[in-house]
């Protein structure tokens, strides 16, 4: 049976937003196994997709060509008999792999000098499309009008939730609100920690049984420590759990799946929450909320839409960070409170 290979992007959010492509491929090829080639930090996301048969982890260093390692991987892939490969990163390095593996149909966007390596070539619109339809378009012929793309959908099991709660010290019978204060792109995308702390105080004052979990990578720990410091001495302090760097990505996904709501910067965990259809408040400053918006049934994208945004810079080029600083906790609380189900107050 012919297999399909997906070559994953390097970012969590992009992997989530590529899931509708898999939905389209599964509908068109119901009996074809779909495998994903992914870097270790992103692999757990693909394992939560029902369309994926196997995740193959790469060992490439960031930015390195590692031609010998790519050749060895290509030989392994060749023996698996793939009929088609969908190359989601726009780099030359990842387009080399299916070409070296002798996969006949190699689908992707033009990217960087990939003529010949990609033989079913797509071209992006100007201005660029939002990410979900951008990836979903690869399931059809280049240039064909894109029908409405399905919504990304991950899944978690009760067993995964139970194990993640036990490890993280989350009481499974108390409502959980997740904060994601980090952002890989840079400090400009981060809502100030003192605003997250003020929001936590609002939540616990209104819903005394609520727990607030701070999720993120080890690099997000300092920002989360500031949130904890901001609630010190208040009634919210015992309810705020700093789990940044303390959970695996798979465990974080399970906790998000268990949550009553998620408040997040424009980050990978935002898109994880959307794909699990959790109520989401997404906070945008230097990035465009229309390019990668939340897609939960209940969701709000908050942006002050200042004249200087979206600047798409890692740090505020004007030095004031007003796009985030002036988006205060009161506004986010007014948006979040109606999303919280009645069970949170129980």
From TrEMBL:
It holds the Pfam family Glyco_transf_9. It comes from the Bacteria. Its EC number is 2.4.99.24. InterPro entries: Glyco_trans_9, LPS_LOS_Heptosyltrfase, RfaF. The keyword Transferase applies. It is an enzyme of class 2 (transferase). It catalyses: an L-alpha-D-Hep-(1->5)-[alpha-Kdo-(2->4)]-alpha-Kdo-(2->6)-lipid A + ADP-L-glycero-beta-D-manno-heptose = an L-alpha-D-Hep-(1->3)-L-alpha-D-Hep-(1->5)-[alpha-Kdo-(2->4)]-alpha-Kdo-(2->6)-lipid A + ADP + H(+). The keyword Transferase applies. Keywords: Glycosyltransferase, Transferase. Belongs to the glycosyltransferase 9 family. This is lipopolysaccharide heptosyltransferase II. It comes from Pseudoduganella flava. The lineage of its organism: Bacteria, Pseudomonadati, Pseudomonadota, Betaproteobacteria, Burkholderiales. The gene is waaF.
């Amino acid at each position: 049976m012919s297999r399909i290979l997906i070559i994953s992007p390097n970012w969590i959010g992009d992997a989530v937003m590529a899931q509708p492509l898999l939905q389209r491929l599964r509908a068109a090829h119901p009996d074809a196994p779909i495998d994903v080639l992914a870097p270790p930090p992103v692999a757990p996301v693909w394992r939560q997709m029902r369309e994926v048969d196997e995740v193959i982890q790469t060992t490439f260093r960031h930015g390195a060509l590692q031609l010998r390692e790519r050749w060895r991987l290509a030989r392994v892939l060749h023996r698996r008999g793939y009929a088609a490969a969908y190359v989601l990163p726009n780099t030359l390095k990842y387009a080399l792999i299916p070409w070296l593996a002798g996969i006949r149909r190699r689908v992707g966007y033009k990217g960087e000098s990939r003529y010949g390596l990609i033989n079913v070539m797509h071209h992006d619109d100007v201005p660029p499309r939002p990410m979900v339809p951008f990836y979903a378009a690869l399931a059809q012929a280049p240039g064909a009008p894109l029908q409405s793309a399905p919504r990304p959908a991950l899944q978690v099991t009760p067993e995964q939730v139970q194990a993640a709660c036990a490890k993280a010290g989350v009481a499974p019978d108390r409502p959980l609100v997740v904060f994601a204060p980090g952002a890989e792109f840079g400090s400009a995308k981060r809502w100030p920690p003192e605003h997250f702390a003020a929001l936590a105080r609002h939540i616990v004052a209104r819903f005394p049984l609520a727990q607030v979990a701070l999720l993120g990578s080890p690099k997000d720990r300092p920002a989360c420590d500031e949130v904890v410091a901001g609630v010190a001495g208040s009634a919210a302090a015992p309810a705020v759990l700093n789990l940044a760097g303390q959970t695996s990505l798979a465990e974080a996904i399970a906790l998000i799946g268990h949550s009553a709501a998620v408040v997040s910067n424009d980050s990978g965990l935002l898109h994880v929450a959307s794909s699990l259809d959790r109520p989401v408040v997404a906070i945008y400053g230097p990035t465009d909320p229309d390019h990668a918006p939340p897609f939960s049934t209940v969701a709000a994208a908050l942006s002050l839409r200042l004249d200087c945004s979206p600047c798409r810079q890692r740090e505020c080029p004007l030095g004031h960070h007003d796009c985030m600083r002036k988006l205060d906790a009161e506004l986010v609380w007014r948006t979040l409170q109606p999303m919280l189900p009645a069970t949170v107050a129980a």
